[in-house]
Amino acid sequence: MRVLVAAASKHGATLEIATVIGEKLARAGIDARVEPLEDVRSVDDYDGVVVGSGIYAGHWLGAAKDFVDQHATDLALRPLWLFSSGPLGDPLKPEEGPVDPAPIATQLGARGHRVFGGRLDRSGLGLGERAIVGLVRAPDGDHRPWEEIRSRSAEIACELQTG
After folding, report:
1. Which residues pair with 114 in a beta bridge?
2. What's the rounded Cα separation, in Å, for the pair 162 and 146?
3. pLDDT in tens, 72-119
4. Residues 6+ apart with CB under 8 A from 129
5. Coil, strand, or helix at residue 93?
6. Can you list the alpha helix ranges (DSSP code H) found in 34-145?
7. 3-state SS, residue 109
8. Long-range contacts made by residues 94-97, C-beta under 8 angstroms, separation at least 24?
9. Across the chain, how many H-helices and E-strands are there?
10. What φ, ψ does residue 10 adopt, rounded to 5°?
11. Most buried residue among 40, 98, 132, 142 by CB atoms closer than 10 A?
């Protein structure tokens, strides 16, 4: 079984989540390949796909939306899981989920969508981004729930192995 784990990631945090998912799938005996979504040209060689995106202003990144639009027919023919990364703080804010994944999941028959906390490191932001996070008082730090991510990855592996 060959699975693609791909993510659109503006500052690398979401791609790091994809990497952990791919590693967990590989430990379960699944041939998992992790790629930035921008580098994926086709899903033809894969038996399943996990697609993730960072969330900005409640929306997936354009690269993620473009990818699912361009590959919708092929994605609908395979087991598909979605994840988003972005809420910050304790408790995570914003509480409401991103706008884009629900209709995508319905349209493509995805087996699930999870929202994971994100990471904010102001030192890697541009001037405009720093102004926005300051305005909304977004807290610095890594808010990604690694155990939850690993647990979800194990669930995906189990679903793939049992068909």
Report:
1. 83
2. 24
3. 999 999 999 999 998 777 777 777 788 999 999 999 999 999 999 888
4. none
5. strand
6. 62-70, 72-76, 101-108, 127-135
7. coil
8. 94/58, 96/58
9. 6, 8
10. -75, -40
11. 98
* pTM of the complete model: 0.92
Give the orientation angle of helix 62-70 with respect to helix 101-108, to 10 degrees.
Answer: 10
Tell me the two tokens of residue 22: 């791919």
Q: Are 78 and 126 in contact (CB under 8 A)?
A: no
Residue of 15, 21, 148, 16 whose CA lies nearest to 3: 21
Report CA-CA distances (Å) from 54 to 44, 57, 85, 148, 162: 24, 10, 5, 17, 29
CA gap 4, 8 in Å, rounded: 13
Q: How far apart are CA 34 and CA 25, in angstroms?
A: 11
Q: In this structure, what token pair is assigned to residue 56?
A: 């900005």
Residue 31 banded pLDDT, cuts 50, 70, 90: very high
103: left (phi over 0), alpha (psi -120 to 50) or beta: alpha
